[in-house]
Write a structure and sequence with these properties.
By secondary structure, the protein is an all-alpha fold. The chain is 78% helix and 0% strand. The longest helix is centred in the middle third of the chain and has 48 residues, at 72-119. It is rod-shaped. The relative contact order is 0.07.
């Protein structure tokens, strides 16, 4: 099938919908001469008319601008690419959050070890307080690391589930 120009595509769609140039022009609030010029490739519809024109002709804006129908496989490819991009973005955000939590936990560990030595020489600070600070900072750091690791494990499982679901989806689409 040879590729149509946008004007030829508009003409084919207009005729397929049983519209004359005048009827299409009236519905778009343009002159029938404008529609004629589009179909002869002397001009193109104004960009603001594209959504209304596409709706009247029973196609999407993408199809109208592409000058042809978009096949099911093209729609699936476009959707799959968008989903993959969203999943990658989500995974990157979670990994970034994981790194932040790990850095905070590391800072707590370091502070927890340093604080007793900073506070110990002071006669006003009891030795027990130094040990409490050390132990509490280590517990908080441990809890943060545990939460971060659990989140990463969930992301890994979700990622594997997505990959498996994607393979099953592809398998089902090829059998259609």
């Amino acid at each position: 099938m040879e590729k149509k120009t946008i004007g030829q595509f508009i003409a084919v769609l207009r005729k397929a919908n049983g519209l004359t140039q005048q009827e299409l022009a009236d519905k778009l609030n343009v002159s029938n001469k404008a529609v004629s010029r589009w179909e002869r490739e002397e001009s193109a519809p104004d960009i603001t008319l594209i959504p209304a024109l596409a709706e009247l002709l029973g196609v999407t804006c993408d199809e109208l601008l592409k000058e042809g129908r978009i096949t099911y496989s093209e729609q699936v490819d476009k959707r799959d690419a968008k989903v993959e991009k969203q999943v990658k973005s989500l995974i990157q955000r979670v990994i970034s959050k994981y790194r932040i939590i790990m850095w905070i936990a590391l800072a707590l560990v370091v502070v927890g070890f340093i604080m007793p030595f900073v506070l110990a020489p002071s006669p006003d600070v009891p030795e027990v307080l130094c040990w409490v600070i050390l132990i509490l900072s280590q517990i908080v750091a441990f809890v943060m690391v545990t939460i971060a690791v659990a989140q990463m494990r969930d992301i890994r499982l979700d990622s594997e589930m997505f990959e498996n679901a994607d393979a099953a989806l592809v398998k089902n689409m090829t059998s259609i």
